[in-house]
What does this fold into?
Amino acid sequence: MPTSRDATGSREPGRPKRTARRTATRRAASLPAAASAGAPHSPAPAVLPPEPRPEFVRLSVGKRVVVGRAARRDAPRSSHGKWRPAPDRPDPIALLEEQAESRVPELVPIRYGRMLVSPFTFFRGAALIMAADLAPTPQSGITVQLCGDAHLSNFGLFGSPERQIIFDINDFDETLPGPWEWDLKRLTASLEIAGRDLGFAPDERRDIVVTAVREYRELMRQAAEMPTLDVWYAHMNADDVMALMRTEVRERRLGKKEAREATQDIAKARTRDSMRVFSKRTGVVDDELQIVAEPPLVVPIEDLIIPDMGWEDVRAVFDGFIQSYRQTLMRRRHPIEEFRYLHTARKVVGVGSVGTRAWIHLFVGRDDEDPLFLQSKEAQASVLERFVGKSPYANHGQRVVVGQRLMQAASDIFLGFLRVTGVDGKPRDYYVRQLHDWKGGIEVETLRVPGAMLYGRMCAATLARAHARLGDRIAIASYLGKGDTFDRAIADFSVAYADQNERDYATFVTAVNKGRLSAETGV
It folds into this structure.
């Protein structure tokens, strides 16, 4: 799989800390009154503490190879193919109901309605269910920074600060350190489940999964031989994707039509930016630019404010938010300082995320034709937390931001976090990013077998790069080995878990039909 050795999105490790500390000192005295106790936001820590030095870096290459081979004794590679539901397996519907308790009540039926579409959309919303199922499975004992929800729809295109289009993981709501196998199993199960929804034959689905696992294994073995900085700089940009497609067409593994459609998708990604959102989502209300209501999916903040909760002057409240958020950004001088806040609305996003609080914020720069849309998304405890331990970060928005910066080859310059006392008077953690910045993704329902094969390889290679940066790539590569034992085992697991997902989906449909769960479809 092609990589680039440009220093994409990287900087000297020590420099951000000194910059952030000086920025925090300079701004501390100027924070508005809203930053006081009980106000709508709490100041975020100015410095992101460094991650502790991993133990494996103290070992020689030879000893790290031994660690990987020794792990085969405790968790033989073939053992990953054996999966059965535990006798005390939690009720999947009860887990969904548990998650609903912390979500916006009127949005939960929309979440269930989106999960009801197919076994694949159910799987997208079932990250907690799968985490519970993965907890008792074999583990090599080698830990990485996990995405936590690495299904195939959580990869895609976006713009880097250097204005390249990058293909990478794009969802980190569940990120935490944990067993590397869990991310890979989440990805391969999604490939098997999507393949069933698309009508692929069993042998075609198996080929797609085995090819993806082989890509992960081979790229991890390559990373084990690479210099450290080359591993950290490696990424896949649009040029790499195009080159890969040309090779696949030349080798007759991909049709010209699919390659042409993918090329058009990359071109479309460049048009998905704040200006596009501006033209679609805004209008003039009382001589001011505002986000246009589209209930229940887009609801202006004025329609949600509860009296006597400290939100009477929304502009003043958001001035405080911006000061707090600004302290978590990784630059001494940042473009956010040139933008003026105008308006906010709640926006429903995704499938699994529906019901968590997500907001879009309209800013303008030099004039009204220079818009910026930011998204602040609620960060709750990771679904992995009860199985791998709590995050060291008190703010779950910070947990997401740190995980994203560690795993992505290049991250959004607007990526930050804060804690907010919401319109209902309750404090919640959020992370902040650009709403759209050359965003592009795969339309799963349009995939054909050759395209799914290629896309699975791209996702697996991207996941391997992310794991190789933070985990012991030498030990993982040693554990995986040269042969296909692990590849075949994961393909077996994916079939078994897809069967379980279908049973859970049927249980979910029954729960909706019998009125245990309320679902709103078509929204």
